[in-house]
Fold this protein.
Amino acid sequence: MTTPSALLQVMMTAARKAGRRLARDFGEVSELQVSKKGPGDFVTQADLKSEEILKEELEKARPGYGFLGEEGGLDEGSDKTHRWIVDPLDGTTNFLHAIPHFAVNIALERDGAGIVAGLTYNPISNEMFWAEKGKGAFLNSEKRLRVSARRQLDESLIATGIPFAGKPGHGVFLKELHQLSQRVSGVRRFGSAALDLAYVAAGRFDGYWERGLKPWDTAAGWLIVMESGGVITSADGEPFTLENGTVLAANPDLHGPYLERLKAA
């Protein structure tokens, strides 16, 4: 058993509370009010309520911390040295279609230290992937996370995200897919960047790449992958940053070969 720190416990309590609400709404998904937020991108009442719960719980435990949420944007807070980065419902389209693959994503950024804690929680499977900087990554409280040990491209399984209607980058994606799909054992598109990163950390996927991402998609996952022994850069091989918007995460043996294929595209 691994005991999370007091900070992580605060984050877990908030994620579970928001997750309970999401699970309840998920059960009534056909009843949900849905409004259009942009091309192919939907926001639901569930999404907004989840962010409200997370903000309330995190503020109660750590007053003054800044808060960057997908729905509400940036609230700077009085403490300029700490910032929560939150996606209240990563995998909204899955949620809307009653597919039980979505997550609550919470990360904490500390001035000068980057992301120091992160979690990704699927309330339907009750899987909590979490990490603290320098302390490792875990699934729930009993399992240490480790990236896979596969070394051969043709034995590996890679995940991705496909640009949807109204998003740029379809041509680039198809070239990259062409380069990789004929050399790996499979490509998966599950519809949640947060869970794709968590699955790389858990060794379920050997790698994952995507473009057009936001900080709340990747902040927690970056730390979880790093703390599980993975390598994570931009999809172009540059150092990973939250603002870059692209990601390639993999085990150390396959990151290089994946990157070669992406560059060849």
